[in-house]
């Protein structure tokens, strides 16, 4: 499965969120697929939130009701939950940049395989908004509170090697070996007894959710709305990118 907006560095649009959520939800009725790999076409996995006007044909219709508006605000949370809840093992194939919401996608996958020179970055706090989409408890669960604090508050680049050391990635290899490594991992997972894999994923999800009881993910949409109404959120999130950052990074 590919994030396929290479002309925008696979920057995440509302339509992409809707399609990712729909596609992963549909896999719950797919009894033939054994492994799902999520990757990005072109130069990177994804440059994060798309802050440019939508491309022709990509804009979602204007919400016609409060209910539809609330649904739109929760698209990111819905997409990441659909990835996390997928009964089929999932692998994020990460190369180039994985920024903001792209890290949320990757964290929702069961495994993350990165090129050694891939760059993970969560710039939301620097831009005046919190990280939402339910990603904070996932990050804490995967890398621990101390590392999560560094990732979220310092907003620094983390290359594939450091991501491996910190538990943000499961494999880090030269980019030339990325596809072979992903294929080998997918082959191993596909070869495991299907029922045992499904039941183990159910166990792991249950333990992860028990550990994060009381988290504020249901309020993520409200948190981002409050942040974007603030002076820092309005100003910084719309600021031009830093030199060397991907064109559409969050």
Structure report:
The protein is an alpha/beta fold. It has one domain (2-237): Alpha-Beta Complex (2-enoyl-CoA Hydratase, Chain A, domain 1). Helices cover 46% and strands 11% of the residues. The strands form 2 sheets. Strands 1-2-3-5-8 form a 5-stranded parallel β-sheet, sandwiched between helices. It is globular. The model has no long low-confidence stretch (mean pLDDT 89).
Shape: globular
- Broad structural category: alpha/beta
Strand order of the largest sheet: 1-2-3-5-8
CATH superfamily: 2-enoyl-CoA Hydratase, Chain A, domain 1
CATH class: Alpha Beta
Counting DSSP H or I runs of 4 or more residues, the number of helices is: 11
By CATH, the architecture is named Alpha-Beta Complex
Helix content: 40-55%
Beta-strand percentage range: 5-15%
* Uncertain residue segments: none
Radius of gyration: 17 Å
Average pLDDT over all residues: 89
User: Largest beta sheet, briefly?
Assistant: 5 strands, parallel
End-to-end CA span: 22 Å
Tally of individual domains: 1
The CATH topology is given as 2-enoyl-CoA Hydratase, Chain A, domain 1
Total strands: 8
Tell me the series of helices and strands, N- to C-terminal.
EHEHHEEHEEHHEHEHHHH
């Amino acid at each position: 499965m590919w994030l396929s907006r290479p002309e925008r560095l696979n920057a995440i649009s509302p339509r992409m969120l809707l399609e990712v959520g729909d596609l992963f939800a549909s896999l719950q009725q797919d009894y033939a697929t054994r492994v799902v790999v999520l990757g990005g076409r072109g130069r990177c996995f994804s440059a994060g939130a798309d802050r440019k006007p939508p491309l022709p044909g990509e804009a979602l219709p204007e919400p016609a009701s409060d209910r539809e508006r609330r649904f739109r605000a929760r698209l990111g949370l819905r997409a990441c939950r659909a990835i996390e809840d997928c009964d089929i093992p999932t692998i994020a194939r990460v190369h180039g940049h994985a920024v903001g919401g792209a890290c949320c996608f990757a964290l929702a996958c069961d495994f993350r395989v990165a090129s050694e020179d891939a760059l993970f970055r969560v710039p939301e706090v620097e831009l005046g908004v919190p990280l939402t989409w339910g990603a904070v408890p996932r990050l804490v669960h995967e890398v621990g509170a101390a590392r999560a604090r560094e990732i979220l508050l310092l907003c620094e680049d983390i290359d594939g090697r450091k991501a491996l050391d910190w538990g943000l990635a499961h494999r880090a290899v030269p980019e030339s070996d990325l596809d072979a490594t992903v294929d080998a991992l997918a082959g191993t997972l596909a070869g495991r007894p299907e029922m045992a894999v499904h039941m183990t994923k159910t166990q792991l999800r249950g333990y992860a959710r028990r550990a994060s009881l009381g988290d504020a993910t249901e309020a993520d949409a409200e948190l981002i709305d409050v942040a974007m109404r603030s002076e820092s959120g309005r100003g910084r999130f719309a600021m031009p990118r830093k030199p060397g950052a991907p064109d559409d990074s969050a």
